[in-house]
Amino acid sequence: MKKDRLFGGEDDGKDGVKMYDVSIVNRVAVGDILRRSASRYPEKTAFVQHDRKWTFREVDQLCNQFANFLLSSGLKKGDTIATICTNSFEFIVTIYGISKAGLIWVPINPGISFEEKKYILQQVKAKLIIGDQMLVQEKLEEYKTFARTIILEGDFEKFYSLFKDQAVEEPLTDIHDRDVAQIMFTSGTTGNPKGVMISHLAVYIASLGNIIEMGLKQDDITTVLMPIFHCAQHTFTTSFLHIGATSVIFNKFAPEELMKNIEKEKITWTFMLPMMYKAILHHPKRKNYDLSSLRTCMYAMAPMDRPTLEKLIKELDADFVLGTGQTEIYPATMMFKPEEQLRRFGSYWGVSSLINDTAVMDEEGNILPKGQIGEIVHRGPNVMIGYLNNEEETLESRKFGWHHTGDLGYWDEDGQLVFVDRKKDLIKTGGENVASIKVEQVLLMHDKVANAVAVGLPHERWVEAVTAFVVPKPDVEISEKEILEHCKKHLGKFQVPKSVIFLEQLPMTTTGKIQKHVLRKRYNDFYINNRSTSYEV
């Protein structure tokens, strides 16, 4: 029997008529995105790193070759490949080559402990580990006890030598839309990390939704600046591959290097954390660079204080948009759009992506009306298949037929969603509930504060005492009294922190999330050890 190279049809032996599986005709697969874009924009630049560029045709063929290399090495559809990598073009080829081969990508955050990495490798039964040399060399022999290992040395030609003899044609792989495309692990702040199984359909549909909601364009030039092992950067990189845009790869955030590339490559669209935008805004050499090409700046992971946002919009003359989502429901799920940014301030998440339903629900599963606080829940094709090896948690996450986020919020009068807090981060103090994010927004408004969070710590009188952790800006003098007086001007009496703890830096994940659980654990006995301190009622 002969097979169609592209679609895998089989000759039934009668008059040359080919029989096609319905799953092939209706196929939805992440790897197909590259083939289609290569067909539409073969000579257009897809990726830039340093001074090297690759066209869509080259990227598609390289990913095909890497996919063929993986399959020729004995790996089979459904096998798992773990990666421990930072951003690079080699990593891009690895990710989408895995998808084309019908294998399952398991990105491991390089910043987690070796024990957590071992836990993930055991859970997924990895058949192959691909890692950056600097990240895996120290424990290489231990990694080899789990699976065969490939090391990326930061040299594309060395990487390419592994598979340069492979066919450039796409492998014939039977991929179904609900097949697991990747397993991403949560941060595990309350226990072992949970493996989130995500389908080809979820990634594909979410990335298309982003194009429409964000108004992405074929002539955009964007950044791969945030870690691509994280769902947020991965989904937008996939979106820009869909639309035929050019992506500039950065291995790390260096403000001046970014500004140089914005000017040189005429970057139009970027995704960064609020603290990164602040670093650009206050950089002493910012005026030396032409940043006028920027059209859209997306931020996520943390709120943007009002003075900073207003100054950024004025000085960069770009649209700012907040995107939200979860690994469990592939982002972006909601967007607070440019036209709303200066119309209303607070913890706004905005409106649902066109691919999602969003509601606010009470503990009994009742959908709440506008103005009432409850858990934010979603439905849509981008919801995870489930948690790996954890049916109980999977069922709990989809009670009442909705995906439960663990976030609290409410709808305002105009149908914009307001985020209140994570359920676990809500501070219960003296019989009142305090949203940590509200306190944080006020702290970040202070012109001497670089970063800040609010956490509830055990207290014999208040049950939990609102406590501020503040990172001052470099070379400034700031006192606890100054911070507390600032808070009293903008917060209710019960919301004002009982203490301010100054730190040089906050504990953070490599994706920019502040690890409040680390602060809770580290400072759990703070008030027990400071009983002599008097607190205002």
Short description:
The protein is of the alpha/beta class. It contains 17 helices and 27 strands.
List keywords for this structure.
Rossmann fold; disordered C terminus; 537 residues; alpha/beta; 30% helix; 17 helices; globular; 9-stranded mixed beta sheet; GMP Synthetase, Chain A, domain 3; 4-stranded mixed beta sheet
Strand content: 15-25%
CATH topology of the domain at 21-199: Rossmann fold
In the sheet with the most strands, the strands line up as 13-14-15-16-17-22-21-19-18
**Number of DSSP-assigned strands:** 27
Whole-number mean pLDDT: 91
Spans with pLDDT under 50 lasting ≥5 residues?
Answer: 532-537
CATH architecture of the domain at 21-199: 3-Layer(aba) Sandwich
* Structural class by secondary-structure content: alpha/beta
Going by CATH, the homologous superfamily of the domain at 21-199 would be: ANL, N-terminal domain
Q: Helix content range of the residues, please?
A: 25-40%
Shape label = globular
Largest sheet: 9 strands, mixed
Quaternary state reads: single chain
**What's the CATH C level of the domain at 21-199?**
Alpha Beta
Rg, rounded, reads 24 Å
N/C terminus separation: 83 Å
Number of helical segments with 4 or more residues: 17
